[in-house]
Write a structure and sequence with these properties.
By secondary structure, the protein is mainly alpha-helical. The protein is built from two helices and two strands, in the order αββα. It has a two-stranded antiparallel ribbon with strand order 1-2. α1 (3-95) packs antiparallel against α2 (136-168).
């Protein structure tokens, strides 16, 4: 065998060993990459599951808060409706003279010479504080003012309840 042939055999052997070494390294590298990819997929699945669970919990919390706010809104709407109905009944009773609004008079005031019985009904001797009946138009205006005040208080209560629900996160 000549030197060139020996050199060719040695080079061929080296190429084969380098190729084999390269193949072994490639298999090892592929194995590590596959293992890392598997771990990465497992981590991503865990992160995705945690995110899904958290989103579901937040959605449940939001739904509970919305239901509580809807119930509170119904309650405040009922209160407002009841107050308006009561005010309308009072206005009707004032208009039909079924009810009279009166004010207490200063007992030391001699300028006012009228005593109005504290309640409508049979005429008789009344031993009570001196009172004066309000003009029906003024009584209607007073009832309207109190109606506006009642609605304002109910609306303020509803707003406060809403803010409490929102700031507490529906707890």
């Amino acid at each position: 065998m000549t030197l060139a042939q020996k050199l060719a055999v040695v080079l061929l052997a080296m190429a084969v060993s380098f190729g084999a070494a390269w193949q072994v390294q490639d298999w090892r590298y592929d194995g590590k990459m596959a293992k890392q990819a598997g771990q990465f997929r497992t981590d991503l699945d865990a992160i995705g599951n945690a995110a899904t669970a958290q989103a579901r919990a937040e959605q449940d919390k939001r739904l509970a808060t919305e239901q509580q706010l809807a119930a509170a809104d119904q309650q405040h709407t009922k209160e407002l409706s009841d107050a308006q109905r009561n005010q309308a009944q009072l206005r009707d009773r004032l208009a039909t003279a079924d009810v009279r609004l009166s004010v207490l008079l200063d007992a030391t005031d001699s300028a006012s010479g009228c005593d109005v019985p504290p309640t409508p009904g049979a005429v008789g001797v009344v031993h009570a504080a001196r009172r004066a009946q309000l003009d029906p138009a003024h009584a209607q205006r007073i009832v309207s003012i109190t109606n506006e005040g009642d609605r304002g208080i109910i609306a303020l209560t509803a707003c406060q309840s809403y803010v409490r629900q929102i700031t507490s996160g529906g707890k």
